[in-house]
Amino acid sequence: MKGTWHLLAFSALLAVAVKTWHLIVVVIVFVWLWHLMKQSRLTPAQVIVICTGIIFFYWFTGFQTPKNEQVQANSGEIIGLTGNIVSEVRVKSYGLEFVLKGDDQNDYLVSYFSKGDVNADVLNQLQTGASCNLKGKVEIPESSSNPGQFNYQNYLRNKGIQYLFQVQVETNSSVNCTGSSFLQQVYNVRQFVLSKANDNLSSFTAGWVKALVLGDNEGIDPGTIELFQRFGLSHLLAISGLHVGLLVGGLYYVFVKFNIVTKEKAQTLILLIVALYPLIGGGSPSVWRASLMTMFTIVLVKIRVPLQVTDIVSLTFLLLYLIDPPNLYQLGFQFSFLVSFALLLSQKLWNNTRPMYQILLVSFISSLSILPIQVYNFYYFNPVSLLVNLIIVPYFSFYVMPFMLLLLLLSLTFPDLVSFLDVVFRLSHETVLQILELMDKFLFFPWVIGKFPLAFFIPYYLLFIMMMVSIGENKKKKAFLLGSCLTMLLVTISLKPYVSPQGTITMLDVGQGDSFIIELPYRKGVIMIDAAGSLDGNFEPSNKRFEQVIKPFLYSRGIARIDQVILTHPDLDHVGSFPYLLDDFNIEKLIISDLYELPEDLQNKMQNKIEIVRVSDKDKISIGTSVFNVLHPGNSNDLFGTNETSLVVFTKIGGLRWLFTGDIDEGVESLLLKKYPNLKADVLKVAHHGSKTSTSEAWIDQLTPKYAWVSVGANNSYGHPNPDVIRRLRDNRVVLLRTDKLGAIQYNFSGNKGTLYRYSP
Fold this sequence. Notes:
The protein is of the alpha+beta class.
């Protein structure tokens, strides 16, 4: 039955869709199948194949879902863990990392931290396939506690990993492993090649060789990796069809051109090399796809069984899925196969065109084929990436990749010859990266769309397919119309907040700090109150909190512009992310008190870019129809500490009265009670993260809040919120909502009515 492999692959995709999108997808799929059968485009037998496939893959995926109730009770305790190492033992900057399948059938990501070189005895014991008895702490991976935040727990679960396990390195008996498997010999080859690259090449060149040939990105600067991600170039850093194609083509040319072996033996040798290459090349989904496709092609040629390339892609997809179902949930797997199918099905469009137009068309098709998934996960699309891909992809295809293969080959065979070539590559590639950085500085205009709605996936791909068909049939007007509809679909998603009567107030879970985002209905204003920062391991300011929490949240809400940022006082846990906000977002106004001292470097950075508005008590901040009343501080000389000079802001939004208090103490609370004897609040932002120095009994008695919002870090060293503060709030029947227990807190409102939500960690 022609096309059966396509149908089975399609069934696997639909099975996951059914598990994800449930009834709506089931109805659409079966109505569509019925329509195709009535139009004689599918036979009843093919429909049966699809339906059977959906049921089988749905069951298979569910059957493979691991259970983890058994280990949860031991989370954080020192325990013994027995099982077998089922992955390569990778050397990281902090020590070692590998996956161990426990005797309880759960998979653990094991970390062995070492301040210096890892003990040789430990290295000799930790071998792939070894049977191990380890001692250490088991942990459940962190899930996301904020909308838009990366969910590490789901990421590991999609790799089939349920738990983290940290070996207790202080104890000599923490590692007791014996044995190994054949795979360890393959990984030994990988480690040998990696060491040769390190020994014979400069660190810069070695980093690129290891990344592009051996699938190890550890040697590439994190800033460069982020740069490639921003321009949609991450696929160039993952081993894929391009890399495998160059490897196979080069080997075949050498074997046959120099009469080393016959064509038939060359095919057999290449088959064996390609079978091992995914293990040597890091084992990413893209390298497995490319290698398996090559193996299928060679085998089918040798046994003279004709199959279309789309059949081979489908067979590869099914094999990888059946071997490891969680593959299907990995972005690399999804991107790799979507782009492959899109390019194969549109081959007639770009196959016979001029080289430059072909590159542009391939880049265009590749980008549009994965755009919904990209926006669904990263919330933005950079239109300029199409232009950048047009320049960078040929550069990598015809220069960087062949150069990397040549340098690696020479470093293994004639290491004395690589020095000059190393310098040539370093100079040329550093220049290209500098140009890319300049393009990032002047040409990075992200279209922040927000989360791509699942309901829009089907119309998007229907329009995309129809547009490509029209281009293939040279129906330019129809193609332009469909392309315009595709663009309007994206514009509609972007404009949704501007036509929505719903507003939102969010208290982000930023650990021990404050960050509140207020989104007014119809996007009439976005106000941010404080921007919590963080420190790195050396106690220096870090962008970690901004990159992991604040920026993803804003992007997920489709926010690229902030109308007003209110900074209550200059402590790092309230303002540390503001400098990073300046770099990535358009900010209209900065609101600070008259007593706030701006650092000189920050003033210079904001010069002529942002309007700085200084306020004091009794001033009003207006945006849209909302008014924020400044209650504190005045110009008093009695206030010396930064906490005492915190801006206190009162507003009415969504039918509730809100009081944002910064880090004020009981003394300021008493001052405010005297100054505003009729002050009431429905929602109180508990001052100073629930410190014992604030939230007095008199303060609660007068305000009579219904809800108390506490932004506080889990297990913080300050003991916040203080037990006495919690007791006082509960005695007054105030509902306590704290980020360390509930994650981000949101109030969604329309008019004067709203609902509170928790984003549970």
